[in-house]
Amino acid sequence: MRRSEVVTTVVVAVLAAVAVFALWPRDDAPAPERPPAATGEPAPVPDAELADARAAAGSVACPGPTGTAPAGPLAGVTVPCLGAPGVVDVGAALAGGPALLNVWASWCEPCRDELPALVEYAARPGAVPVLGIDVRDDPRAALGLLAELGVALPSVTDPDGALRAALDVPPALPASYVVRADGTAVRVDPPTPFATADEVAEAVERLS
Length: 208
Fold this sequence. Notes:
Layout: H1 3-23, H2 36-39, H3 51-57, E1 78-80, E2 87-89, H4 90-94, E3 99-104, H5 109-122, E4 130-134, H6 139-149, E5 155-157, H7 162-167, E6 175-179, E7 185-187, H8 197-207
Parallel strand pairs: 3-4, 4-5
Antiparallel strand pairs: 1-2, 3-6, 6-7
Helix pairs in contact: 3-6, 5-8
């Protein structure tokens, strides 16, 4: 091998070693940022910081226990209320059913169109209780959407993903579930967003 070829080979080897060293992960290097969806629920927001947003959205309280022993996958699941301070034992609040659960978020465009239909249904005589579940969301943004739409719908948040796990909520939103009297929860399928209160009523009647 000629001298020039030897020098070229050495230079290429040195440059390759430098590149590998530069790209090799180091313990002191900061971890890359990930979008909120990849890291789970946003950090909880203290009740004191939600006061103004709750007032603008109408300060909608969440349901309390029905007095019937809860059963099914929601038994023992306790989560924060969105519209008012405090927590909700979801299984106890819906025990004895039927009830309708709607999983939504402020960043979900179909949810924006569906929420008014749910409110219209909930106001009908004989309607079953409707409870919203705000997921993977900042509660201030969620309350802002409710205020913008004029939607007074009782909702909870799910900071630890307990409700999503119990219901096996799919990634795409919205998703709705009918909770039966025995505590079982049945997903509304196909998962087409409700456009009218009549569509909500039909799904509840069909799955109760």
